[in-house]
Every structure is written in structure tokens, then in C-alpha cells.
């Protein structure tokens, strides 16, 4: 496939399934190391609404704000969602910086996209002393943000891989 990201070596991050309890999560992972959680939520209904066809049918005419690298980047462009999907959504060129690629992430209108976001089932685990902050992004293969850090976080991939 043109523009496909080549497979990398097998990830060594520990995996856990729905048998992981909240106390186990807190003790083993929450503040100390990453974990890949599988089967802890059922987002099949959300995933079905996130196909290219479904997103275009529901939101194609809406204007979306594209940005480079992350929500706080300086370059932002407003275009109809359909234009983004059909003309701008491409694999990241490996020879270019991630901050050169426009993608849809973070600057979502939660009122206009509410019918979709309401179908998302969040993970059952929480980090004490924090509150959830959700963002939704759509980007081409190989895209991403430059090196950065923050406190504990959760990322769920609906299509593709991280």
C-alpha cells in the first residue's frame, strides 16, 4: 500500500483484558508504567459511526478546524470536513516534519459533533485526582505530534494503530 507505515518490532508493553480490576490497575499501572487494555469497553457502535462513509454522510458539510502537530500549533485552517477527507487527508510524508501536515484534532465543535461523541464509551478506569479530557482526531497514516510529555493519559484507537 502506498504510504503505509511499515510494521515495527513487536511492542513489549504489557497487555491486560477485562479481568483487570480497578484496584489492580491502580496498583500495577496507573502511576508507574504503560499498559495496553483490550476488551474493557465496547465501542463497536461508535466505531461503526466512524467509518469514512458514515462520517461524510453525517458531517461532510460542516466546517472543521485543521491544525498542524497539535491543538496549540500556530497554523490553523478551516475547511468543510468533506474537503479535508477527500483532498487533504493523506499519509504523512516521512521526509517532512509532523508540524507540516494539517489534520483534524482537538478543535472539535462538540455541539455539532455531539451525536457522534455521545456514543463513545469511556474506559472504566480513572486516575485519582484527575478529571477526563476528551479529544477526537482524524489523520492520515504516519501522522502524529512532535515529541511531548504530560501526566497520565489514555488513548484509544478506533481505526488504524498508534
UniProtKB/TrEMBL annotation:
Cellular component GO terms, alphabetical: nucleus
Care to name a GO molecular-function term for this sequence?
cis-regulatory region sequence-specific DNA binding
Report which superkingdom the organism of origin falls in.
Answer: Eukaryota
Per its record, how is this protein called by name? JMJD8 protein
- Origin organism is Ceyx cyanopectus (Indigo-banded kingfisher)
